[in-house]
Amino acid sequence: MMNIWENIRWDIIVDYLPFFLKGALVTIGMSLAGVLFGLALGLLIGIGKMSPIAIARLPFIWYVNFFRGTPLFVQILLIHFGLMPIFMTPVNPIASGVVALSLNSAAYIAEIFRAGIKSIDKGQAEAAHSLGMNKLQVMWYVVLPQAFKRMVPPLGNEFIVLLKDSSLAAVIAAPELLYWGRAAQGEYYRVWEPYLTVALIYLILTLTLTYLLNYLERRLDTE
Amino acid sequence: MISVQNLKKSFGELEVLKDISVEVNPQEVVVVIGPSGSGKSTFLRCLNLMESITDGQVLIEGKDLTDKQTNINEIRTEVGMVFQQFNLFPHKTVLDNITLAMTVVRKWNKREAEEKALKLLEKVGLKEKAQVYPDSLSGGQKQRVAIARALGMEPKIMLFDEPTSALDPEMVGEVLEVMKQLAKEGMTMVVVTHEMGFAREVGDRVIFMDEGYIVEENEPEEIFGNPQNERTKAFLSKVL
Ligand SMILES: Nc1ncnc2c1ncn2[C@@H]1O[C@H](COP(=O)(O)OP(=O)(O)OP(=O)(O)O)[C@@H](O)[C@H]1O
Ligand SMILES: [Mg+2]
């Protein structure tokens, strides 16, 4: 045990720490952008999936099927090397990462959104309708505020998953946290120092997020 | 005030209302009784289009509910409904439960709506609960708030679907008392209930439904004292 501790090359960590921190910022930025775009797109897809017309639901159902049923890794490759070159050259890997994370999280968020709305007792919408509210008013004033509360925990969970999965963007050279870990490993031919440091930073990020989400949940609970 | 002609309602293959015709006059209190599954709730819910009408006609103050031109939401502001399960909005205070539709649908300003809401809360004896959330109320209190909420729209007709069935026995009285008061003030009411005492005391007319038909319809003394139909007799012998 003593031996391992003595053999750690702290200089690698010190050397790369600024890059790790910069990478962590990119990681946070990409996941945040992913979850925000995913939220907007997910709401639309969730609504689309609840359409009363069966044929109108179909594209949304298949969107969700595709993005939940195939690996994010494959999606990132398809988007970076297939989709993005249509829109930009050269392709910015961070942009590819954000697009992939957004499209992917939208599928999960659509389901969270749908489940949240469905979990609200039918009597709530009925009572609101019986008072003369139209569909939009019922949604906005009665169903969504209640559904939102129930959506916070699974949405938080999705954010944490996204934050970790954003590490897959390292393979398309998006300069996020793991990318710098790989860079350090390549430069020094050392495994433990860069990857353990990177793992520790991910852990700090996810635990902080968990803490913030728990706080938010408690706040919403007492409201 | 309410005119129902040959109303039929099916859920898919299941025909729940088979041929209902009935008139309700202004200020009248009509009580609907009948066994479980006979279509009482469905009938009531057709009166404010909470259920679509399969066939026949329902006129509310002369407005045809089956007419595509009729604005459903406008009708619903005229026809209040009280549910067995109260259905209060848990994320809103008692006061906001009442003022929500007043401000959003009626477009009254907040001050005006709150004044009216407080008067209604006073009427149902819950003024001091204005700022609490529904969670902290007893069942009886919840139902009284729900009544106040429906009254907030200043409806001309009130529909009650078993308003006391979900309540502990000791709370039934306080809700019936509010309904009695409402009847006394001249509200037109259609009430589905198992409270035969209420039917007898407050009802102007009792309708007995069975298997999607109105089997018998008469003044309370007649229905309870001298039922004509065998099925009415059988039902009453069970519940009285
Ligand atoms: N949304 C629905 N879809 C399918 N069937 C329904 C629906 N609502 C009611 N029914 C059926 O219609 C019939 C009449 O139901 P309804 O609720 O009107 O009866 P009820 O007289 O109010 O009974 P209860 O005293 O139990 O409340 C029942 O057989 C019921 O299962
Ligand atoms: Mg019923």
From TrEMBL, chain A:
Lipid bilayer topology: Multi-pass membrane protein
Keyword Cell membrane carried by entry: yes
Gene3D superfamilies: MetI-like (1.10.3720.10)
Domain of life, source organism: Bacteria
Location(s), subcellular: Cell membrane
UniProt key word Repressor: no
PANTHER family: GLUTAMINE TRANSPORT SYSTEM PERMEASE PROTEIN GLNP (PTHR30614:SF20), MEMBRANE COMPONENT OF AMINO ACID ABC TRANSPORTER (PTHR30614)
Keywords: Amino-acid transport, Cell membrane, Membrane, Transmembrane, Transmembrane helix, Transport
Chain segments annotated as transmembrane: 20-48, 60-88, 94-113, 159-180, 195-216
The protein, known as: Polar amino acid transport system permease protein
Source organism of the structure: Aquibacillus albus
Family in the record: Belongs to the binding-protein-dependent transport system permease family. HisMQ subfamily.
Sequence ranges assigned to domain ABC transmembrane type-1 in this UniProt record: 24-213
TrEMBL record, chain B:
CDD domains named in the record: ABC_HisP_GlnQ
Pfam family, one: ABC_tran
Molecular function terms, GO-annotated: ATP binding
SUPFAM superfamilies: P-loop containing nucleoside triphosphate hydrolases
Localization terms from the record: Cell membrane
Domain named ABC transporter: residues: 2-236
Sorted UniProt keywords: Amino-acid transport, ATP-binding, Cell membrane, Membrane, Nucleotide-binding, Transport
SMART domains, per the entry: AAA
Keyword Phosphoprotein: no
InterPro entries in alphabetical order: AAA+_ATPase, ABC_ATPase_HisP-typ, ABC_transporter-like_ATP-bd, ABC_transporter-like_CS, MetN_ABC_transporter-like, P-loop_NTPase
Keyword Transferase on entry: no
Gene3D superfamilies cross-referenced by the UniProt entry: P-loop containing nucleotide triphosphate hydrolases (3.40.50.300)
Membrane topology recorded in Swiss-Prot or TrEMBL: Peripheral membrane protein
Superkingdom, natural source: Bacteria
PANTHER family linked to this entry: AMINO ACID IMPORT ATP-BINDING PROTEIN, GLUTAMATE_ASPARTATE IMPORT ATP-BINDING PROTEIN GLTL
Family to which this protein belongs: Belongs to the ABC transporter superfamily.
Protein's UniProt name: Polar amino acid transport system ATP-binding protein
Native source organism of the sequence: Aquibacillus albus
Lineage of origin: Bacteria, Bacillati, Bacillota, Bacilli, Bacillales
